[in-house]
């Protein structure tokens, strides 16, 4: 039996109908970008049917984790979904897929461009089956262009689309971001595009082909870095945790840890100099009295600050900063992050019972509606958990399902 437990402040939605209730989504995606998009849609009430490879499943199903056979990757982005396995390279499997497509509102896939079309499940094929279908392709580089058939990997796109170039210390090699943010950004873009297409279909009655890819999602994620180059021709560089044009605005070491400090304007710097550094004269020193001067004399000021902060431990400085009006934050490890009083107060962690992995803790859906979260109604599924259930809904008999399983179609 599935059970949901929560921290004391967590409230699931009661009386607020999930906005995507009644929407059926076929999820043919694997790993992170696509599953992130479909999980967000499932969180809003969509019936997401995850179509996986027979016997093998999602590439992350058996990745290392503390709760085999389900992996941490898979568990993180596959809640609220149903799992079926179908070999749609077979005639019977292809027929199952066509029946599912006929009944679905959305199909999301992340095969290399053109792969599904070669199997009879491309956009042109599917819109003939269901003209209202919203067909979403998530790839590394998009459906056109010289890289269209290249596989997309988060870390490769980080490197190729500028993010890794601006990440890391200035005198050290580039580094990747600690989480696969390009995949996650792409999932967010796909999720938003699908929501917009659902609204558009209410007006037009027609489906659409959505082309979403990691490369362009990463370009969009460059934000001000992109604008600085496109508008002013300014090449970017690595600054570690420091800000290129604001000082002090970076991580500083304490006696036993690290703090992020962002005295972003002259008023904040004056408070910082008076109350933290106990050197009020610094705020009037011509070398540091304006942000431009502080940027010019960055190295000297950073050394002064470091000398003071390294005299005490992190907790001492947290007390000194609290309520001061100068932006700051401790560099928390993951345990400290999930024990953060704000995470606890907001109910940001939920517990669920998984039929194979046991009790799991998950990050709750990040958005509330009138102070309540949409419910987590299903744990991440195990491989093929719902195949018989879904095929029965399509009209297959028990005998037919047994035969399909014997023939390794499902």
UniProtKB/TrEMBL annotation:
Domain of life, source organism: Eukaryota
Q: Name one GO cellular component term.
A: mitochondrion
- Keyword field contains Transferase: yes
Q: Which UniProt keywords are listed?
A: Transferase
Which one of the record's GO molecular function terms can you name?
succinate-hydroxymethylglutarate CoA-transferase activity
Q: Which family does it belong to?
A: Belongs to the CoA-transferase III family.
| Protein name in the entry | Uncharacterized protein
Species of origin reads Piloderma croceum (strain F 1598)
